Structures are given as C-alpha cells and as structure tokens.
Amino acid sequence: MSTIVDTFIAPPCSAEIEILYEDEHLLLINKPAGLLSLSGKNPQNLDSVHYRLVEDFPGCTLVHRLDFGTSGLMVVARNKAINAALCQQFSQRSVTKEYSALLCGHLERDEGIIDAAIAKDPARFPRMTICPIQGKPARSHYRVDARFFQQGEGGTPLPLTRVALTPETGRTHQLRIHCQQLGHPILGCDLYGGLLMAGAEHAPRLMLHASALNFVHPVSGEAVNVRHASPF
C-alpha cells in the first residue's frame, strides 16, 4: 500500500470571505479562489474558510467544501444540529448546485451528460482517476452558454467555452476530471490538463465558480435559492 504524502502548501490568500446571508442557524458565503475550505494537517496550511469563520461564529462547521482553486457559494452550519440536518439534505441529493466554468476549446454539443465513475489515484495524489471498476458512480450535466475566443499571453487567441455544470453526485474533483474526460478541461486546472492548451499556461486561476445553491432551510422549511455571478 503506497503512503500518501501531501506536500501542498497554500500560498497566502488576501481575499476576504463575503458573507451573503446570516441568521442564527446558518451562513451563506462566497468563498474566494485560493483559500482552503478546511485547514490542512500541515501548520503552514492553517488559513481556511473554517479557520476564519470560527473566530466570528464559534461552533460553526462546514457542511460541504469547495476545492482550493474554486470560488463561490457555500452554506455553513452554525451548530451541530443544523449541520446534521443540512448533511442529510446533501446525502439525499436534495441539494442542487450549479457551477460556471470556462473550458479549453469549443465543445461541439450544446449540452450533455458525463457519466464516469471516479476513484482515488494513490500513486498520483491528490489526483483522482476515472475507474469503472473501483470508482464511485459520478454524473454531471453540462450546458453551453457561449463559445468565444479570448486573447491569451503573447496574442494567442484561446478558444473557450463557457458552460453551466450541474453535478448529480459530489465526488472529489468531479467536475474537473469529468471535463477532462469530455476532452475540454477547465481552464487553469493544474491537475487535469487545464494549463496544456497553447496560451492557457498563464491562466490566473482555476476557472470554476459555484454560482447557484438550492436547499431547504432546516428550521423555517423555506426554499433557499441563492445565486452568485461568476467573477470571470
């Protein structure tokens, strides 16, 4: 069995967490790109969404996470009971999420489904891999919003596709590896080919943003449908 060693050290993140809504039960936030959701085991990776929020909201816990490079919407529970209630919604897949992303190249189809099981790849940590035998089922929908060219470094025109991504399941790196599987990795994705297209190596960040989140408030029972526009 191979030993997994996490050598990643997160660079300092000066961007602030934007609190979009708060009540006595939960918070809705906009996470900046370049900030860990949870502090890592390495003391150099102390800064995180949870580390910052717990200072002002003692007892708060994360219900779900976003990758380090992903920005956008997160719901944060302010106590254990709310965490349990929200986690149940996530496990029952009654929570729906939508992401905005820029993909390398121009997709042919206007919409589609990526159905590809995902497993850990211990030999290439932290990467995941597509594995129909050992992987957990994973399914994502995509819808093309625009195809365009963007001026890259040195004047290279980058063919890009803006898509809305809706994951049915919540596997680690699901959208990133599914887009690679589609043949159009997310621009700026260092793990799954998003820096390989000519001119893409200078992408300032992972172009993935959690833009919509829909769930039921665990106390009021009201539908919560929040949107946050992509910053790219």
Search tags:
232 residues, mainly beta, 3 helices, PsdUridine_synth_RluA-like_CS, RluA_PseudoU_synthase, RNA binding
Model description:
The protein has three helices and twelve strands, in the order ββαββαββββββαββ. Strands 1, 2, 3, 4, 5, 6, 9, 10, 11 and 12 form a ten-stranded mixed β-sheet that branches. It is mainly beta and 232 residues long. A hairpin with a 7-residue loop joins strand 7 and strand 8 (128-130). It is globular.
Lay out the secondary structure.
Elements lengths: L17 E5 L3 E6 L17 H8 L4 E2 L8 E7 L2 H12 L4 E9 L6 E5 L2 E3 L7 E3 L8 E13 L5 E11 L6 H8 L26 E9 L6 E5 L5
Parallel strand pairs: 4-11
Antiparallel strand pairs: 1-2, 2-4, 3-4, 5-10, 5-11, 6-9, 7-8, 9-10, 11-12
Largest sheet: 10 strands, mixed
Number of strands: 12
Work out the strand percent.
25-35%
Poorly predicted runs are: none
Specify the number of helices: 3
Secondary structure class reads: mainly beta
Q: Can you give the helix content as a percent range?
A: 10-25%
**Helix and strand pattern:** EEHEEHEEEEEEHEE
- Taking all residues together, what is the mean pLDDT? 95
* Radius of gyration, in angstroms, nearest whole number: 18 Å
Shape: globular
Instruction: Please report the distance between the alpha carbons of the first and last residues.
Output: 41 Å
GO molecular function: catalytic activity, acting on RNA; pseudouridine synthase activity; RNA binding
Protein name: RluA family pseudouridine synthase
Enzyme class: isomerase
Keywords: Isomerase
